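> run fold GSKIP protein
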Amino acid sequence: RMETDYNPMEMPNNMGFEEDSDYRDFEGTDVKDMRLEAEAVVNDVLFAVSNMFVSKTLPCAEDVAYINVETRERNKYCLELTEAGLRVVAYAFDQTDDSLQTPYHETVYSLLDSLSPAYREFFGNALLQRLEALKKDSQS
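> ok
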């Protein structure tokens, strides 16, 4: 049996999976997880940027994925997604620059907010429109 990184005391009792279930072997699913996380990030904010996609040339691993984003100002960035958050690793698609020491952001919203005034405005307007629609729905 392989050693695992988790403390069994931290696992909730009500997870409801048996010893012989598919969940027993987490190892194979980790590699997909960061890519899935990156895809979710892209889907969340794609409407508010010019272009955004998970890099197909930079390697995804269990602990890292790379996302290319082009802001509405036409600036291009390569973002690194890790457990620590997101950060800019290059000012071009599909590249990393080890000399860049950019800060990590907990969320893609915070990172884009710092990079792109047009993103901030577009995101804010979309939020206002959604709130207006909810208000109309609740009044009818």
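Helices lie at 30-45, 108-115, 117-139.
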